Structures are given as C-alpha cells and as structure tokens.
Amino acid sequence: MRPSILDLVIIGGGHAGLWLGAAAVRAGLSVAIVDPSSPGAARAAPADGRTLALLGGSRRVALAQRIWADIVTVGHPVRRVEVLEPAAGARVEYDAASLGLDLFAFGVESPALRAALAGSFLAAAGETAWVTGSLAGWERDGASVVVSLTDGRRLRGRVLIGADGRGSRVRDLAGIDLTRAAYGQAALAFIVRHDRPHGDAVRERLRPAGPLALLPVGPRRCGVTWVEPEATARALAATAPDELLRRLDRETGGVLGALALDSKVAAWPLGAQHARRYVAPRMALVGDAAHGVHPIHAQGFNMGVADIAALLDRLVAARRADRDIGAPDVLLAYERDRWWDNERRLRLTDGLNRLFSNDLLPARLLRGAVLRALDSIPPLKALAVREGMRAG
C-alpha cells in the first residue's frame, strides 16, 4: 500500500526518473513515478534508433546503487575508442586494457535501457508505485508538496522531482528560466547490422558538418549518431534505406563492411539548454529537465546520472540524520554539487562542437594539433580518459 506521504513524487518515467526511482527505493525511500505511458508500454517499447553510451563513471554509480545487474543484460561493452578528423588527417586511439581498465563505456539502445530501468524500479517498488497520468499542477503544503494530476487524483510527497525532459512542465510551473543555444544541426539516429566485427570500438569521425559516431550495442550491431546541418539531416532521413547505407559506408570508410538497417531512422534538431536553478522549495530537477547538451563527447545522459547520484546522496544523508529530506539547505546543497559542473560540461561540449564542426583553416589546424597531442603524450591521453569517463 502506498504511504499517505511519499518521500519522492517523480514526474517522468524516462531514463532519469526510472533510474532515480529504482535507486531511491533501494536506498529506503518511498517513491511514486508519474508518467503518461503505462508500465507495460515502458517495458515493451520497440527499437527507435536512439542509443546511449553509459560511461565508466555511470557504471560505477549503477553498481553502487545496486541497479547495474538490471542494465548489463541490454547493452555491449566499449573497450576501444577511435577518433578520426579526416580534414586534418589526425586521429587518436584509446585502448582500455593498455590503460588498466576493463572498459570505457557501455553502449545501449535507448528503449532497451528504459525497459531495463522500468523493470528495476517495478521489481523494487511494486506495480502500484507507477502512476499512469499527467501532471496538472503542484503546491506546497507545510512539510509536503501536493501534486495534482489531470484526472483529479492527488499525490503527496516530501519532495517533487522534475525528471520530465527538456520541455519539463515541473520546471515551467516552478518559474525557472533557461539559457539556450541553437546549433542549426540535427542528428540522425538508427541501428545497423554489419558483417565485420566492430571490435568493441566506438568510432567517431569529426567532420565539418558535424560528428558521426558508431557505438556498439550488440554483436555486429552499432548505433549510428550522424550530425548534419538540419536541412541535410532531414533529407537524409527521408532517403531510401539502400542509399542511406551507401552514404554511411562512404562516410565511415567501409569500416563495418556490408550494412543492413535494423531500426527506423529518426532525426531531431540539436541545441543546448541549462536551467538557471535546479531547485525550488520542495522541488528538484534532474537530467534533461535541468540541462541538455550537444551529443558530441557522449556527455548528456551521464550528466543526468551524476545528478541522480548527488541528489540521492544528499537525501539519504538527511534521512540518516533524522532530518527533513525536503529542507531548503538539503536541496540547495544538491544544486551546488551539480550546477557549476554541468555548466562547465555544457561549455565544453559547445566549444568542441564549434571547433570540430568548422571547415575554416585555423580550426582544422588547431583540432589536428589537439588530436595529435592526445595521441602522442601518454599522460595527456590518460587525463582525457579519466575526465571523459566521469559520470557528469
């Protein structure tokens, strides 16, 4: 039976909301997740072409929060990284074993990860902890927050969590503004099967039009994230599959051999955004509701994992001290833990995109020099690996 006052009411049953919910229940907190879709739909979503790279730091968080066993069955380890800048003729390669690591990252299809996290949450919290519905509004009521759904139902919790994506209604109702940047680019996303082994390697080509990355998500299966100017990307998404795969083969130098499309082809516009605050009285934002970044450098979802880890650490510490988990200083400490670190990563991904999605000669010379330095100076390469594998 659901308690009359929950610890957390999480709006959003996507990756961030489900991850936080699954981890919070295992940490002893009572949780409800509100999402328009049903649990069955979350666990049975078909492949839609989108993929995610869970970096090594995110795996460590999942292990510590006891949800890694639910994730590890739906993806593929990444043990090598190859970055090529064709215009400058530069490349850098990383090998996990040579750096004393077992892997760099874990490639997963987005719907498969959501299904795994939904199963993890429901196994820990029970079916009644998933509330199929939509947020209408919320208001503070003393030591709790009352959440109203569009069908008239109400939930009461100590903290409301906005995990409802870039267009977060929780954030909007809290009156929190955003800073935004548009890139004039869009990303194609789809899955391919191929006849050559990928060697557990992510391959990223840094092109003036935008990066193109191949992420292993299974034996002889890779997720493709292919960035182009928006009009070009939409035209490619409408191209016949055989022609699209021929273009991909040319762009990647035939590295995967014969290709076959294994999902639909999706395209979405790219931009960055950052909430000016992450918290309000008895409310906190996590994941895409707090920030969104360019896909270069695979930072986006991993930043959300770091949000979840930091927030849960603060909530659990407050509970162990017999304090109100929704107290202002508890939530503000979470914001201090994460806001500036996420701002730094937003600036990093923005700068990388502007450096590499640029065909001017000075930019070509600079990025070639950067990649050659990374490849030829072992301490610098090791530093880049440590920084890149952090969860957020």
What can you tell me about this protein's structure?
- Strands 5, 6, 12, 13, 14, 15, 16, 17 and 20 form a nine-stranded mixed sheet that branches. Strands 1, 2, 8, 9, 10, 11, 18 and 19 form an eight-stranded mixed sheet that branches. A three-stranded antiparallel sheet has the order 3-7-4.
- With 392 residues, it is an alpha+beta fold.
- Helix 11 (361-376) packs across helix 12.
- The protein folds into two domains: 6-47 and 60-73 and 109-179 and 272-353, FAD/NAD(P)-binding domain (3-Layer(bba) Sandwich), CATH 3.50.50.60; 75-108 and 182-270 and 363-389, D-Amino Acid Oxidase, subunit A, domain 2 (D-Amino Acid Oxidase, Chain A, domain 2).
- It has twelve helices and 20 strands.
CATH homologous superfamily annotation of the largest domain:
FAD/NAD(P)-binding domain
Tally of DSSP β-strands? 20
Indicate the CATH topology of the largest domain: FAD/NAD(P)-binding domain
How would a textbook summarize the main sheet? 9 strands, mixed
Note poorly predicted spans.
377-386
> Helical stretch count?
12
Percent in helix: 25-40%
For the record, the CATH architecture of the largest domain stands as: 3-Layer(bba) Sandwich
Total separate domains: 2
Average pLDDT taken over every residue: 88
CATH class of the largest domain: Alpha Beta
In one word, what is the shape?
globular
Look at the helices and sheets and give the structural class.
alpha+beta
Strand content: 25-35%
Query: How widely separated are the two ends?
Result: 36 Å
User: How big is the Rg?
Assistant: 21 Å
